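Q: I have 445 residues here and want to know how they pack in 3D. Can you give me a structure?
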Amino acid sequence: MDAELQKLIEAGKLTDQAAGQLEKLKPGTFCLHKSWGFGRVSEWNLLLNQIVLDFASKKSHSMQLQYAAENLRPLAPEHFLVRKATDLVAIKNLAREDPGALVRNLLESLDGKATAQQISEWLIADVFTETEWKRWWESTKKVLKASGAFSIPAKKTDPIEIRGEGVSHADELIAVFNKARLPKEQIAALEQIIKFHQQFKEPEKQLQPIVATIENMAARNQKMHPGLAFELIIARDDLLGRVPLLHTTHIGLTLSKLILEEEKRLISILPKLPAAKEKRVLQELPSALGPRWMERALYLMQKSHGRMVAQIPRLLSEAGQHAELRAMLERSIREHSATSEMLAWLCSERKDWSELVTPDLLGAILAALEREQHNTSGRAGKLYRTLAEDRQLLGDIFKKPDVGIARDAMRRLQLSPLFDELTKRSLLARIIKVYPELESMITGE
């Protein structure tokens, strides 16, 4: 032990334990304080019973020896913060060349685990800018997952840990799936298994039980939770497609059969599915429903809102059913039965449906807005914004009709309670731009 520290012990000014701790805090070493954070010991002043430290926010800060011994944590040279303070260039090179090694060193310096937020706090500003960090972290997470040496949680707020020896990433994925109880957790765990299917060295042994579990869960949940059953079967199909050695254990439990059995409930099931899975179900309609699939697709488009209104036209067009879709749209516009979602979609895609962009379309839009003006769900909001904000829409609608039809449309707009005065005048002005002779209708001349 340092001779000066020994004298202080003999004089009763320091305990043996405190002196042992101070022996690790000689000038030039680094430490952590719970309030001031990372610091460097700059000098000892044993005559004054003090130790002097430099912290980022507090330079040349003096502490009593006993207090320093009790409140400073000495850091080894391999600690991440020490390495960063003494050789920042090497840390930056390591981040670029071996991100896994950098994260391992950082986690070891934080007792083996840390959240993404904690990791970012030690890297942003010194090693990365905010933008560089986000880009680096996205690529590094993939490296960490692929290495199998780290446990990467599904939640961003949970800590990343160094995995114990003997536990592979594949084994951990299976364990997470088996422990999951809530539907969302089960689906999330299953999607991770599908994503990292190549890490399973014995897929028949490791994943065939997962397939059986998925199918049993789907069968049990079909009646009460049909949306979950759809997600499970789609995930099962994805897994079977990626791992040819696997096979179904429920003969006949297919997506087509599920659609057929739940045909009447599709209108309530599909909006609850993620967009990609909703699309998968819609693409399977022809195989599941046979000749009547188009009738069901048109029905879903008329009765639903949101994503399906945009997805179904693409599906019908790809299947060569453009004429049938056009006839349905034309009829719903003429009868004023088209929903706000259908009309908003048609306005946004009007370049492909120019034959339907006529004053009848404006009539259908106003009818839909009037029908739903008291609807508090906000379903009419998108259509209202389309009409008010798309400054080319009315010009396209009145590109060909005679002035009499335009005059009637202007009268209807003037009498409509749907719009405030400023919006109403803006809409009228767009029609007048096409028919200047109708300006007297709003000037009163």
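Q: Anything worth noting?
A: The radius of gyration is 34 Å. Confidence is low (pLDDT under 50) at residues 376-380.
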